[in-house]
Hints:
single chain, mainly alpha, two-stranded antiparallel ribbon
Amino acid sequence: MKYLYILLVFIPITIAGKIMGFSDTALFLCSALAIVPLAGVMGKATDDIAGFAGQRIGGLLNATFGNATELIIAFVAMKEGLFDVVKASLAGSVIGNILLVLGMSMLAGGLKYKTQTFNRNSINITASMLLLSVLGLSIPAIFTHALPEESLNSQYEGLSVIIAVLMLLVYVMQFVFTFVTHRALYEESVTADDEEEHNASLPKAVGLLIASTVCIAVISEIFVGTVEPMADSAGLSRTFVGIILVPIIGNAAEHSSAIIMAYKNKMNAAIEIALGSSLQIILFVVPVLTLLSLFFTPMSIVFTPFELVSVTGAVLIANRVASDGESNWLEGLQLVTVYIMIGAAFFFV
């Protein structure tokens, strides 16, 4: 992870480039390279704070700030009215976490260990919640075909708000299940090798969290402003940029953490990072953005058919993979291959 911090040099380069009038493509690349280490700093600061806060609050903090980078980028894009980029990036985060991150984790771990095992009970619960969440995400799209077109606009907002509130409620209930009523399912024995050192003081960790959040917000303004011009100049669709490039940039630090965990034979942690992050996108980030959009231009929770099919397919695969409690390199290769296929399809959309 430490090698990522070298990229922090792109923070001043991006800001200077904005002032000096760099091209949109150059600003896109510089801001993307700046966001990657900032997401890593935010994650490390959250982990350090969690070390002081205890297991329950620490788990809540990690879950809450796990997708903060994507939330900030999506919020900035939403304010700019780039709803198609926002929805594509959210769908891309789910697809990327399940197919690319989980696939690369299984592949990396499987090349070192013939077969890896994980807590099937806890992972199955997460996978099942993912499936139910995707079904809820599909309701607005089905709704568009159930009513006459002239009556849709007046009812989008109400349906989106109801679904957003219900998703947030389920998100909160998940913590009650995990940390109160069924916490035994998620407890694992911890060895000395598993314990991570938290050398940072609490004030330093809080300061880093605040500073990284502010920096991501500033860089995200520049990054989002270059998406459309860069896509046009490179001949790429905004959907491809949103569903492939933006999630990879926002999740780079988290992706590397999952792969490293799998390589260390901590497959349970790697899968929880991939599936838990996807679940948080659907149950927390999507509804929060929907509710925040009411203060600007209301954004409905309606994804394109291809995005929904891709997300649903990825979630179905996650449920299948989680069912046996074991993984190997071939399963990882299959997941990565499916991700490349989906990426290629979105490239030509």
